[in-house]
Batch of 4 targets.
Target 1
Amino acid sequence: MSLFGIELTEEDKLSLKNFEEKLGKDSDLRKSHLAYNSESNKRDIYDEKFEKALFGYVNDRFYFYKKMEDPKIRKQIINVIISRPHRRTFGVI
């Protein structure tokens, strides 16, 4: 399956889902998302948190890590996560 312009294995799709869930559980990220921050500030915070969360995959899922490290793919993923309704990403209704 192709997503974000890359081929994803079933394991990649599961890792991506887990990755988004991990970001969704980050309380600082949640606060910044729900606050009245500019889109630019939100993006900067997401980028920082994305980098930290992605680093957790470097040892166990190195090829997934390398795919997600691509700047174009990274930007697309952050755009998708930021645009998700609050209730999905952060469990907020």
Target 2
Amino acid sequence: MADNNDDIVRLTDTDFRILEALTDGRNVAANLQHEIDATRTYINSRFGMLYDYGLVDRVGESERVGLYEITDKGRVALEAEDEYDDVDSREFTELVDGRLAERDDDGS
């Protein structure tokens, strides 16, 4: 893994709630704001960060639509949420990447 700090996943509690909500399927910030008690503007800003981290994907060709879905990496990060506070951000990133690689090797 590169030593670039941009590669380190730093998540908030809201990020985990967004990922959890997306396990039910694709969604937009306007719908999620009521479910996770955050503003649409804040959720959209976090969508951008989650996208940059590879935890969510934009659905559709238009960047303006704002429809997102969780990725396999996002699912792994969500599954490891309980371990997030126990390690620093770099270790969490390595943990998620390692578990994702194991899944890929197992064909899961």
Target 3
Amino acid sequence: MRELSIGQVAREAGLSASALRYYEKAGLLPAPPRRSRQRRYSEAVFGRIYLIRLALEAGFTIGETAPSGALARPGRAQAGRS
């Protein structure tokens, strides 16, 4: 699987690298593994970026988007949800 730097992901997704770091800090993107202190993303990150953009375009704020079931950490069930 191809590993991408933050700059490569930003270019391909049409975002800034600072936006990706912000999404990570806000809990929207999981922290990727690092190689030599540099973030290395898998191509799966583009699916999550798509969901983030979809939620933001629908009018949700970052704060409303982060705890949503669609963007919760993979493999973790939401409390009170089935």
Target 4
Amino acid sequence: MNGEGQEESRTVARNITVPRGLDTFVKHLVGDGLFTNYSDVVREALRNLRNDTNLQKKQRDAILKSREECRADQDSGRIRPFDTNHINEAGFDAS
């Protein structure tokens, strides 16, 4: 069993307050049989939030890495800014 599974096998009781609209939503989820109880809904929501947060971090890290690579390419001269005048001089009309 991985560390995450072990973490989830130990439970801690918490008291939470939710807006009435969310409470109604959760009761419908349980009433429709999609979840066994209120706690299951909250646990699933927190797992999804954790997964979304991890994904967003990975995406942000990838974007920052790509930006740094682009800057390094610019600094080294491997790429240069887009210049429509150069295209026009080569005989292509950009208009």
